[in-house]
Each structure stands twice: as structure tokens, then as C-alpha cells.
Amino acid sequence: MCDKGSMAQYTRVSGFVGLITLQNPPVNALSAAVRQGIVDMVERALSDPIVKSVVICGQNGNFCGGADIKEFGTNMSGPPLVPMIDAIEAANKPVVAAIEGSALGGGLELALGCHYRIAHSKARLGLPEVTLGLLPAAGGTQRLSRLIGVPAALNLITTGIHVTAAQALQLGIVDQVTDHNAVEVAVTFSLSVAGQSMDARRISTYPCPLPSDFDALFEGVMQKVRQSARGAIAPVACVQAVRAAATLPYTKGMEREQELMATLFTSGQARAQQYCFFAQRAVGRWRMPSGARWETSKPMPVHKAAVIGLGTMGRGITVALAQTGLSVVAVETQEKQLMEAKQAVSGMLERGAKRHGVAPMLDRISYSQNIQAVAEVDLVIEAVFEDMALKTEVFQQLSAVCKPGTLLCTNTSALDVDKLASEMPNPELVVGMHFFAPAHVMKLLEVVYGPRSSPQAVATAMQLGKKMGKVSVAVGNCRGFVGNRMLMPYLQQAFFLLEEGATPELVDRALEEFGFPMGVFRMSDLSGLDIGWRVRKRDELVEPDMASGQSARIRQGSRYSPLGDLLCEQGRFGQKTGQGWYRYDKPGSRVARSDPWLHSFLVEYRARHGLVPRSIDHQEVLERCLYALINEGFRILEDGIAAGPEDIDVIYVFGYGWPRHRGGPMFYASMVGLAKILERLEHYQQAHPDVPYLQPSSLLRRLVASDSPPIHRWREVIKKYQSQL
Ligand SMILES: CCCCCCC[C@H](O)CC(=O)SCCNC(=O)CCNC(=O)[C@H](O)C(C)(C)COP(=O)([O-])OP(=O)([O-])OC[C@H]1O[C@@H](n2cnc3c(N)ncnc32)[C@H](O)[C@@H]1OP(=O)([O-])[O-]
Ligand SMILES: NC(=O)c1ccc[n+]([C@@H]2O[C@H](COP(=O)([O-])OP(=O)(O)OC[C@H]3O[C@@H](n4cnc5c(N)ncnc54)[C@H](O)[C@@H]3O)[C@@H](O)[C@H]2O)c1
């Protein structure tokens, strides 16, 4: 009664039920072999006169993670999904989906073709195709809209969110939720409906319930989607497909779904987003130049953690740790700061708990003004001011107070983690855990290792990051690590463009049209101009505004723009002071308005320095800012600070607002063409010979000389290049 050769196993259970089990670990993706297996096994079950009903489930407590994304770039063979699902729906015996684990994308579409859906209470369901630059093209847009109505379907399909079994029941996606074995419940249920007509259970035959404010609804959703999509085409196509479900008969709607999918499927955006999907998973398989790697490095258990310094970052980190289920000791020396932090942390936890319908983890946190309180913790995250002397002092105190083996992590943005480690008795226990603000929200974590960091320390920080729901990327130690280091040439080019004739509005518009949520100047206003100013002062780059002409714009032999310093000297720190590159109605206000003062200031500045303004277009803004940033990315790969282009891309997509549909800076470079990037960098370098960041990196030259291999083969070239150094 069992066919074991196929990727869909067939068994007869309870005498009369054909049980089809998808078998394609780890997520039972619908590869060609699985689809063939389903087609064959469904046919077998329907033609077997003893079989009264059919149950479809997935192996190892996991229903199905959808179409096999790895097949997308290949010549797809095997039976197509749509007729396979149609055949299931048309069956004259009841077919029940037993959903455990996840039913996502094509997996949920398969379940929607079944006559009933029974889910385990821990199951998750969704149509996440939009996050891969696609739409649910196996009938998902047409069936889900008919089943749960247009507004709810639009929400699920355009965002790609996963819903819990309880939410799915409430929405009407599943018929029953159980805490017991979902397959057994489905088998019993299928027998209870055996022999009944399934006519009323075929979703494709349902009329699509139309909301009364139909046109207004679609117009509103389309507007919202276009705004948040920032140039991504998949969310727009998703809305169009649901609209087809609402306005066309099923077969016509399906044709529209296929048409829209065909456009998306071959678009560069889908390739970029699917690259991001795999890159996000690839960064978990980290390796260090020493040869240490993820598979062979065992993380230490972390039950209790401490946070030192409860400013902007410390508060967010405390919240994120508590939400992960850890006990947290939060230490802040300033009484006033401590009181404010307590209130802020409780507020963040309460709001988070309300959103997720869970209890706030307030009792997981104990507060103290005394560093002695951290004696028993397994891991400490330091988030005091960005000052090497202070951080060294705090680390020395920690080394004296903490139990042996406690991992010491710093949240520094740019200080030398290895130098900090070298001052400690146990440098192998020191790593950077570079969170991004707000730390309980932002998904990115850079785990910074130095030559002395032990693989176990890196493994522990990486695992903790994952538990905190972060996308953690292991990177080497250098000024600014990966993200902030690449930001330097980007910011520098933006300043130079202002000197040469651009306005903040023009530069920001070009970057926002490219897909960044905020241009560089709006972003600087939000994060505070004083942060960079303090760093430049420490680096002795800031000079009194006395001189004029070119010499005033040279520091340490290279071109330098003092524009940011001049604004700070006027007290223009951005949103918090109500003035920066833009003006705001009041300090703290978020709406950036053009500032005539700034424009006159730029005119006067250019005149004083003998700069003749010229007209600058969007193309130049993108090339200067983005290619300089990409060039630094190649240098980072050259130096072995990032293990591969995926690491850089994940950092930029999750930490810096790089549009996902453009895949990350290094993927974008591979799409533009490395030869073109090199040619444009050479062009700009000739025009600006005093800007070292525009000098093309040797690795970029090497890749172009090697016929610009596809991005998945860059690592081979990098390895060869490094071995020759
Ligand atoms: C014209 C053509 C028409 C076609 C019609 C298509 C219609 C359909 O609508 C399209 C789709 O279904 S689109 C699909 C829509 N579905 C989705 O978007 C769901 C995508 N998957 C997920 O969201 C998560 O994997 C789960 C939540 C399922 C599990 O999370 P977790 O437990 O944290 O596990 P994890 O670490 O995430 O993954 C483990 C391993 O499995 C791998 N892998 C996973 N799914 C895969 C797949 N579908 N495929 C291949 N591989 C897949 C993953 O790469 C990793 O392997 P690696 O070697 O380490 O890289
Ligand atoms: N703010 C950001 O966007 C951001 C992003 C990533 C990393 N960082 C880094 O995180 C660290 C903290 O930044 P922040 O913005 O949260 O600073 P912050 O000024 O908001 O807070 C620092 C806190 O540390 C406290 N503190 C100082 N000395 C202490 C000591 N010895 N013991 C306990 N507490 C002490 C201060 O009283 C203050 O409350 C810095 O290294 C910064 O570079 C900041």
C-alpha cells in the first residue's frame, strides 16, 4: 500500500483513506519530482475503488514551503502546478489538506485546491511570493480572494505576511485548527465527509465577494502599495491580479494571473529578490579567515545577559533580549538616564506585547547603577558612549566582575574591536555586536570578529542574533566594519555633488527614485549631523572656517568637503534642532521642507571657494554615490572583511535601506555590468584625481579582466586574488 520511490509517498490508512505525504526535505518544496509524485498519487487514490477520501500532508511535520525556488532559474520541467491543483479540486472524493509547520506560497495554493483544510495550532500560512518579486501564480490570487474576500486577500498577497493557524481560522482560510496530530484529525474528518458531493467546496466556483466601495478600495491600496514598493513591480502586479479575481470569471482571472506572472518571472527584480532570499540564508554559514566556520564552532549557552549603558542603543538592545526570553541585567550609571530608560523600555515592551497579543516581559529585566550586578551573566553587551578610553575602562571592570567565560560584546559603530580586545586578559571572549537603531526593530546585526576572537565567541553572538530575530552577518574588524565603511564614500560623494552644483533635494530625489526609503541628506537629518561631526573632529579633519579656495577643501592630501562641519557650527544638527539640510516646523518634527537659507548658503559657499556650479543630473548622482560605495565593497572583499558579496548585500538590504528588488550593492553591480562600473569609476577618477575613493579597486579590475564572472563565482576569483597577495 505504499510507494516509497516517489517524492510523494502514498499509504492507505484507516482502511479507506489515501494518504499522500510530500517528501522533499527540509520544507517539502514543490520540485518537479514532487509535483510528478502528487499527480501520480492523486490519480492512484482517485482510481482506487476502496479509497473513499484523500488526505495530503507533508513529511516531518511540515506541509509545504511552496514552489522550489531553486528551479526558477532553470529549465523548468515536470507537471505544472495549475492543472495539478485544478485536478485535485475537481476530484469527486473529498481531499483534505493536513497542515502542520508551514503552508506557504505554492504550498498554500495546493491546500486551497483541496476541499477542506485542517491546520495544527502551531502552523503558519501565507502567500509570500511578493517578497520574491513574484505573485501567487498557481491560482492563489484567484482562490484566496474568493475564499476570504478582497480586502483580506489584498493584505496577505501584497505584504507576503505569514498568519498563524488561529488567524487563518478567523479569516476563513482553514476549516479547523487542532492541537492534536493534524494528519490523524484530517483522516478521521475526511471519512466523515466521504460520499458527500464536493461541489460546494470548490473555491474556484465561488463568486468573489465584492466590497461596496470597490473602486475606492483598489485605488487606495494601489496608491499605498506604489508608495511603499519604491519601484518594486511585484506588489503592483499582486493588486492587479486580485482585481482580476474581483472582476473576471475564474478562467479569465487565471489567464490574467499567468500573464502578470510571466512579466514578473523574467524581470530582473525577481532575480534580485530571489538572490536576497538565498543570500540571507548563506550568511548564516559564516567562516573566518582562520578557517573557523559555522559547522565546527559550537555556541555557548546564553540564558542571562547584561546591557551596559541605557542610552538610545542600550534600551533597544535590552528590549530585544527580553523579547527573546533572556533574563537581562541592565546597567546605567546616571540616575536620571536610568529612570528614563526604565520607563522607555517598559513602554517598548508593552507596545510590542500588545501588538503580538502576548504578555510583556517586564519581569525579565533587573536594573542597576552598579556594574557588580552583572557577575552571573553569560554575555554582556556594552553600549556606552563611543569613546575608546571609556569602553576600555568598562571592559576592564567587566573582566574583573564577570564569571570566567562570560562573552564580552561591544556595540561600537566604528572603534577598533581588536584593540579593545587586546587590553583584556581574555581577548578571545571579545566580539563586536553592532546593532542598528532602533535596535529592537532593525533586522541587521554585524558580528565583528578580530584575529583574537574565538570561533566559539563568534558562534555564540551569531546564534544569539538569530534568536533575537536578526539577520546576523559575521564581518572582520576594520574602521566602520562593512556597512559604515561603505557609507563613507557614499556620503562624501553626496557632499561633493553639493559643492559642484546639486541641492540636497536633487540628490535625495535621485536616490529615493532608485528605491532608498530616504535620500542621504534626509537620512543625515534624521540620524543627526553631529554624530559624523564628532567623528571628524576626533579624526582632526575639522578646521576653523577661515580659509577659502581649494586649499580649504584638502585634508591629509585628499579632497574634503567641510559642508557638514559648517552646518554643525551653526547648530544645525538635523531634525532634533529643527534645521539641517532641510528645515522642520519645530525641533523633532519629521517633515523635511526645502530651506532657502541652505540654498543661499550653498551659493555663497561655492562663490567663496571659487567653485563654478554646473547642472547635475540623476544619473550622475547615482553613479557617483553608488559606484563609489560599490567600489569600497570590492575593497572590503579584497581585504577579506566580508567573506563574500552576499554578506555585503544582506547588510545593505537589512541595515541601510538598499531596495531589495535591486538585490544589494554587489548584486546591482553585477547587473549593471562590472566593466561599466569600472569604466565610470575611471571616468570620475580622471575628473577628480584627488578623491581616493574613486580609484577603482584591484579586485574590480581583476574581475573585469576575468570576463566579469557571475556573482556566485566571485568567491573563486577573490580566493585566487588573495592567495597571490
Ligand atoms: C511560470 C512559473 C509558474 C510557477 C508557479 C509558482 C507558484 C507559486 O505561487 C510560487 C511559489 O510558491 S514561490 C515560493 C514561496 N514560498 C516561500 O517564499 C517560502 C520560502 N521559505 C521560507 O520562508 C522558509 O524557508 C520556511 C518558513 C518555510 C522555513 O524556515 P526555516 O525553518 O527557518 O528554514 P530556512 O533556513 O528558511 O530554509 C531551510 C532550507 O530550505 C530552503 N528553502 C526554503 N524554502 C524553499 C523553497 N520554497 N524552495 C527552495 N528552497 C527552499 C532554504 O534555502 C534553506 O536551504 P539553504 O540550503 O540553507 O539555503
Ligand atoms: N545611536 C546609534 O544610532 C548607534 C548605532 C549603532 C551603534 N551605536 C553605538 O552604540 C553605543 C551607544 O550609543 P548610543 O547612541 O546609545 O549612546 P547614548 O549617548 O544614547 O547612550 C550612552 C549611555 O551610556 C551611559 N554610560 C556612559 N558610561 C557608562 C558606564 N561606565 N556604565 C554604564 N553606563 C554608562 C550614558 O549615561 C548613556 O546613557 C556607541 O558606541 C555608539 O557608537 C550607536
UniProtKB/TrEMBL annotation:
EC numbers: 1.1.1.35, 4.2.1.17, 5.3.3.8
Location of the 3-hydroxyacyl-CoA dehydrogenase C-terminal domain: 480-584, 621-706
Descriptive protein name: Peroxisomal bifunctional enzyme
Top-level taxon in the UniProt lineage: Eukaryota
Source species of the chain: Perca flavescens
One annotated GO molecular function: NAD+ binding
Annotated pathway: Lipid metabolism; fatty acid beta-oxidation
Alphabetical list of CDD domains matching this protein: crotonase-like (cd06558)
Keyword ATP-binding (UniProt): no
Stated family: In the C-terminal section; belongs to the 3-hydroxyacyl-CoA dehydrogenase family. In the N-terminal section; belongs to the enoyl-CoA hydratase/isomerase family.
